[in-house]
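Re: weekly structure request thread

Next one in the queue (256 aa):
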Amino acid sequence: MIVKLHTDTPHQVFSYLYPLFSRPTWPCIWSCVWPRVSSASATLFRTSILGLLTLANTAQAQDIEPRPSVMGTLRDQRQLPVADADVFVRSSAGSSSVFAKTDQEGRYQVFDLPPGNVVVVARDPATQALAMAQTQLQRPEQQMRLDVQVARADARLEGTIIHGGKPVVDAHISLLSRQVFADVGVAQRTTTTDANGHFKLERVMPGAMRIIVEADGLVSQQDVDMQGGSTQQVQIALGNSVYLPNVLSGEDGTSA
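Done, posted below.
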């Protein structure tokens, strides 16, 4: 092959190079050179894969190391999961509660709790009803399951506040559970009286409750036992009285 440059001078360099790039030559280059290149690439590829697998296995081994945890499901009286509920978990060996929220299936999980008596308190977001359960976490790496069931808040409280035989308007009403739920405290609902001194609270959780009435510097209280699915009616005479806070007695968090 003769190639002419721009000076029209013949040049035969490409006549010598052409055979190297001609099609019959490539099989020789492929068979002679590629095995070495492919062998080196394969070795590098295998080394890279082995390294990645080693890192993955190490990370997986770290992820599956047992961690102390408490998990469970919050359900209502109909055994339906309660989603987006506040959950407070505390070990007797800890200094504070661990907070979590239930998912759409009512599930919660907390980690890294010290061994001890574990109390779980859950609050229904719809009714503010509280539920509590407890268990023993004995080993640092132990994983415990503790389901919680919240009482159906279908009780109703109605009443009238009077003073000197007359209805008290805008009296502040607090309905408190007489049971103390660990760090969360007491379940509480509030309302005020109308122009006739009447008040009502719906969707109240069943159980032992205490009514606190405050108006014009006067305080009164009355204990009631709320029954599920029923209406409790009261009449409270406002007077000079004081009330004491609930006192804890025992590890279960109940009041004295």
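The longest helix spans residues 26-63. Helices lie at 13-21, 26-63.
Next request, please.
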